[in-house]
Design a protein that fits this description.
Elements (H helix, E strand, L loop, with lengths): L3 H12 L12 E6 L4 E5 L12 H11 L6 E7 L10 H13 L5 E5 L4 E5 H4 L11
Parallel strand pairs: 3-4
Antiparallel strand pairs: 1-2, 1-3, 4-5
Helix pairs in contact: 2-3
């Protein structure tokens, strides 16, 4: 099992490498896998705003590039602000794809400065569309 504190620390470290010159909203994400591995991502903005990448999407892309196709157990997401940060709708869908490949329902740790809200991905994205719908 992935240690929550380790996963949150990895997400916070990733946020420090954010490229967010337009919004100033630095986000970090850390994916925790069944084998103990952690893959991180940070948001990457672009002057053409629609081309920006969220931290969770970057982390999933890195994990997939490493050949990971399952075993996603937990995700920590952190950013600025006073409230715990939840993944946006697009990121919920991207996380769902990786989770469904391994038939998991990962815990999403929505991290704020003083509070962590833990929710299963299925609660954040009920009735999700995924690989099984393509058959």
């Amino acid at each position: 099992m992935i240690d929550d504190d380790e996963l949150i620390a990895a997400a916070r470290a990733a946020a420090r490498t954010s490229y967010s010159p337009y919004s100033g909203f630095a986000v970090g994400a850390a994916l925790g896998f069944a084998d103990g591995g952690i893959v991180t991502g940070t948001n990457i903005e672009n002057a053409s705003y629609g081309l920006a990448l969220c931290a969770e999407t970057v982390a999933v892309a890195r994990a997939m590039a490493e050949g990971r196709r399952g075993g996603l157990l937990a995700v920590a997401v952190t950013g600025p602000g006073e409230a715990p940060l939840t993944p946006c709708g697009r990121c919920r869908q991207v996380l769902n794809e990786l989770a469904q490949l391994g038939e998991t329902d990962p815990q999403i740790l929505c991290v704020g400065p003083d509070e962590v809200v833990r929710l299963p991905l299925s609660a954040l994205l009920p009735h999700a569309f995924g690989p099984a719908a393509m058959t």
